[in-house]
Amino acid sequence: MQIDEAGYKRPRLNKAYQDQPIASSEATKTLNRSCPALTLDITPYKTKNYHPIWGEILEVLRGHAQDKEIRQAGSSGGVISALAEYCLKHKLVDGVIQIKACDQNPLENVAVISRSRQQIIASSGSRYAPASPAEAIRLVKSSTEKYLFVGKPCDVAAIRQLQKHDPHIKQGIPYLISFMCAGTPSITGTHQVLDQLNVSRQEIIGFRYRGDGWPGLTKATLKNGETRSMTYNESWGKVLNRHLQTRCKICPDGIGEFADIVCADGWEGDEKGYPSFEEQDGHSLILLRTEKGRELLRNAESDAVVKVESFDAQNIFAIQPFQYYRRTTILPRLLAMKALMLKIPSYKGFELSRSMKEIGFYQSFKAFTGLLVRRKKIKRSQLKTA
Ligand SMILES: Cc1cc2nc3c(=O)[nH]c(=O)nc-3n(C[C@H](O)[C@H](O)[C@H](O)COP(=O)(O)OP(=O)(O)OC[C@H]3O[C@@H](n4cnc5c(N)ncnc54)[C@H](O)[C@@H]3O)c2cc1C
């Protein structure tokens, strides 16, 4: 996986394969059935309780890691890192597949297998830039060890869909944990954050998008020991979220439907219910999606690894308004893309027409025409530059 000119990670064929006919190879067939950019099929993982906005949910909780260091380091309440450490400690897995900032280049995200508490803490926090934990799959292929896999909903969907066709990957990865995702910004977004902090890329030895508090600061550490920072609201809200890749804007699965457990920010709303980004002790929203996920979380709770309380599923909307809006407007956006004869991924089982009904005709029409107008503008500006 390599960053392309637009600043997103894209697959490149290894040299050894470049001269081979690949279209009919087994690897290509498996890729076509598993890659979330091409296809997402949630049908095998649904029951009659399926919720048209939030997917399959056994329980909704709000809570945090009991370990103070992990809670502080984590992006929200540190629940993902706490569960990862629990899995290692109790030998449920041999390693945790996750991403972290590269030691040599803190702007690059690398896939790693963590085997200790220190490595898990070093990988904690959200990284709002291209990252591909599924790259570590090649190590699973040649190993008999067991792993917990942590990734964005698309990373986890790729592994879950691959597991259907590859029993070795199914055995090797017994747990999949994800987090809600509003989309991946290009690396250009990060470069613009650095520009606003008045820092050159060569000067930095560390870069965090958030975490180390909740939501925590976006912070660049310079070679001379100085730090420069801005708030999460400034970095994500004013820069990074303007660089999301197109596929993320039509993603029906920002909510991690293929995972055993999904975490998100457990914001407390203001009087209008809008999430507050005031600095405070971290809280995670936790969606338990499978029995295996529920067992893991409840065992970790019994061992005082996480502290949780029930959360009313009706209130998810108030703290995740973006996820609600995107999910309910996917279908009109897809229809607009079809009208423009653009290629769209195949989505099965997401009940998108049911979710569209939630927002009604006016909002659906707005989403449909909004996409048409934006696309036309892009085309016109491309014509001008050409
Ligand atoms: C691109 C992006 C978009 C997000 N959008 C939302 C959203 O819309 N709503 C919301 O509530 N939360 C969103 N989050 C998630 C949120 O910031 C927290 O990560 C989540 O609540 C888990 O918190 P935690 O404290 O349990 O995680 P931690 O204990 O801090 O663990 C985080 C884990 O995520 C992994 N990780 C971090 N960045 C990436 C990445 N880019 N790709 C793959 N793995 C990664 C880390 O390696 C680590 O294992 C987003 C995060 C990212 C990276």
TrEMBL record:
It holds the Pfam family FrhB_FdhB_C. The keyword 4Fe-4S does not apply. Its EC number is 1.12.98.1. GO terms for biological process: chlorophyll cycle. Keywords: Oxidoreductase. One of its GO terms (molecular function) is 7-hydroxymethyl chlorophyll a reductase activity. This is Coenzyme F420 hydrogenase subunit beta. The lineage of its organism: Bacteria, Pseudomonadati, Pseudomonadota, Gammaproteobacteria, Pseudomonadales.
